[in-house]
Specification:
alpha+beta
């Protein structure tokens, strides 16, 4: 309580005179000179997957004609999780302001078309996938194959006329280059004659550590991955990355889930590991990796943030005994909205002390949860800062979302280096933005004051997730069974009471309540308890089912789910029998435990996926601490 009191004491806000560094980079004390030094710091290829290295090298040495520029539409973007959507139906989505339809043909091939029939521009997402594997437009029954070619046109008066019209390119659907990888459907950012060639020459932003894993399970290098989560968010692409790339907000906005807003905030530096470029973004390490990645004063793990445009952020946590790599994809769908995909992979080495580490416990918990459980608990994290981000970007933009980067720089106040990665992100966005929305008003939408719309988990996720729809259906069935069974028990208890009252009345005229209860059979108490228990179960299931539809949250109120999660103790260092069990289940046993260097070493015998992930930040900190202790005459730890 004392710590809390110290944190919340109000301090007067002192006025200050702007310095030259303030004016150089807006309202920040991070100097332009420091940012210039960062431009040549680190390794320009650290964290870049091998298939993208030639492209990044060509841009760095100037041999690429597009070096130093970024083209948003000539990129791959994930648009759907294959395991989550119903493959028998077409699915609408959006990308860069364009409506798309994602569907699978009879050969199991996924395609993405612009969501309009070439005939009279009716939405193909309102159509159906036929038994012959074609996509049928529900307006006039034109059918299209996976390449977008018209396969059937029933209004033609003859076979000859149909073939003649079908040979016209204008009869084709507006197809986008499409691919499948990592359990995701990917679509190219534009269509057109050259799109297919350009797309095949551009490798997507894949994460090799989870390559080949469609749902969840074992991944390369002795790793294990959880289920993909996907959700539409009511704030824009820039707001997502500004937030996700900011370590300082985690223990505050996500209080109780990953730490304490009162005890865990701490200062740190951002060390540039890969300098900023148009094509490859940038990568920074935390020095030290403050909570939630470590406990204050116990810095035995390191963490790096790796932003690769247009849509990937990797949060790379590394301990001597384990590694967690969380991969976030954020896709700009329409102004003020984005679609978020996330999955985490765990690589495990030798040793068991990491089991007590707070970050290890938090992340291992999600690896064995079924998809629907991971998804329904997702809002407990994402909704904690949703209203903040939804309103913040609109306050800054003031209606002009296309000038967001410039307005952000001019309005914010950045007094410490903890916000350095956010400054770097807006520096990149200022040079290579804004998002080029197509075919619609690019203005930022107004603030939505109806929180029920912001917290609508049905619209943002459940309606297109087959796992969650199935879990919701089963929960409703169990709730109804509990209600019926509870009702039956309650009726039977009432009957027992009626029988007892009748017996008491027959024995001596007017019967008191005591007489009635005295005549109840010994089983009556059990029947009443069963009825109340079943009604309580039904009530709990009703509340759980509601989380698939809506999950409101307010920082001003205590949240029973959040507080319950905190009581489990996953956000603090310490032993946990549950974590021990999960760790043994996934990585225990002679065939799994003790895989050498599974935490991510860079020796020549390791998987190439590990090369370049280790930073020198933690090593330098340990060396400095050992030297300091040696000089003081204390034994090095």
């Amino acid at each position: 309580a004392a710590a809390t009191a110290r944190r919340v004491v109000a301090r007067p806000r002192a006025s200050a005179t702007a310095t030259s560094s303030d004016s150089a980079t807006g309202g920040t004390t991070i100097s332009a000179e420091e940012l210039d030094r960062d431009a040549t710091a680190g390794n320009p290829l650290i964290g870049i997957t091998p298939d993208r290295v030639p492209m990044v090298k060509a841009a760095a040495d100037g041999s690429s004609p597009t070096a130093g520029s970024f083209n948003w539409t000539k990129q791959w973007y994930p648009v759907a999780v294959i395991d989550l959507i119903d493959a028998t139906k077409p699915h609408p989505t959006q990308l860069l302001g364009v409506d798309l339809v994602v569907w699978r043909d009879g050969d199991g091939r996924w395609s993405a078309f612009e969501d309009k029939c070439p005939h009279r521009l009716a939405p193909l997402s309102e159509g159906r996938v036929e038994d012959d594997g074609t996509l049928l437009c529900a307006y006039h029954a034109w059918r299209f194959d996976a390449d977008g070619k018209c396969a059937d046109m029933p209004q033609a008066s003859s076979r000859e006329e149909e073939e003649r019209v079908k040979s016209n390119p204008r009869s084709c659907a507006f197809a986008r280059p499409t691919m499948e990888a990592q359990g995701l459907v990917w679509a190219w950012g534009e269509g057109g004659k050259e799109a297919e060639i350009e797309a095949r020459m551009t490798p997507p932003l894949l994460v090799p550590e989870i390559e080949g894993v469609g749902k969840n399970g074992e991944a390369p290098g002795g790793a294990y991955r959880n289920h993909w989560q996907v959700r539409d968010m009511p704030y824009g692409w820039a707001a997502f990355f500004e937030n996700a790339i900011d370590p300082a907000h985690a223990v505050v906005s996500h209080h109780t889930l990953v730490g304490s807003r009162y005890d865990d905030p701490a200062g740190f530096k951002c060390v540039v590991e890969r300098p900023m470029t148009a094509e490859a973004g940038f990568r920074c390490a935390l020095d030290p990796a403050v909570p939630p990645f470590n406990t204050i004063g116990k810095y035995d793990a390191e963490t790096s943030y790796d932003f690769q445009p247009p849509c990937l952020l990797k949060i790379d946590w590394r301990h001597e005994q384990a590694r967690f790599l969380t991969s976030h994809y954020c896709v700009p769908t329409r102004p003020g909205w984005c679609r978020h995909f996330v999955a985490t992979v765990c690589q495990r080495g030798e040793g068991e002390s990491v089991r007590q580490h707070r970050w290890f416990k938090l992340n291992l918990f999600t690896l064995t949860s079924p998809a629907w459980m991971t998804h329904v608990l997702g809002p407990t994290f994402l909704h904690q800062d949703m209203v903040l981000l939804h309103q913040q970007e609109k306050i800054i933009a003031n209606g002009d979302g296309q000038a967001l980067a410039e307005k952000w720089k001019d309005q914010v106040f950045i007094p410490t280096g903890a916000d350095k990665m956010t400054v770097m992100f807006y520096q990149w966005f200022g040079k290579h933005g804004p998002v080029p929305w197509e075919g619609q008003n690019a203005e930022m939408p107004p603030i939505e004051r109806d929180h029920s719309k912001l917290f609508d988990t049905w619209e943002m996720h459940t309606k297109y997730c087959t796992h969650c729809q199935g879990a919701l259906r089963n929960t409703e069935i169990l709730k109804n069974v509990a209600l019926v069974a509870g009702g039956a028990k309650a009726v039977w208890f009432a009957c027992l009471c009626a029988f007892a009252a009748s017996a008491a009345g027959a024995a001596g005229g007017d019967a008191s309540v005591v007489d009635v209860f005295g005549n109840l059979p010994s089983s009556a108490g059990g029947e009443l308890f069963s009825a109340l228990s079943l009604f309580g179960t039904a009530y709990g299931l009703h509340g759980f089912a509601g989380m698939f539809r809506s999950y409101p949250f307010s920082h001003a109120e205590e949240d029973i789910v959040m507080e319950g999660t905190a009581k489990i103790g996953l956000a603090n260092d310490g032993p946990s029998p549950y974590i021990d069990f999960v760790d043994d289940s996934l990585f225990g046993g002679a065939d799994k435990r003790g895989k050498p260097h599974a935490g991510g070493c860079e020796c020549s015998g390791c998987s190439p996926h590990f090369q370049g992930i280790r930073s020198g930040v933690l090593a330098a900190r340990k060396e400095k601490q050992a030297k300091k202790e040696a000089e003081a005459g204390a034994p090095a730890r």
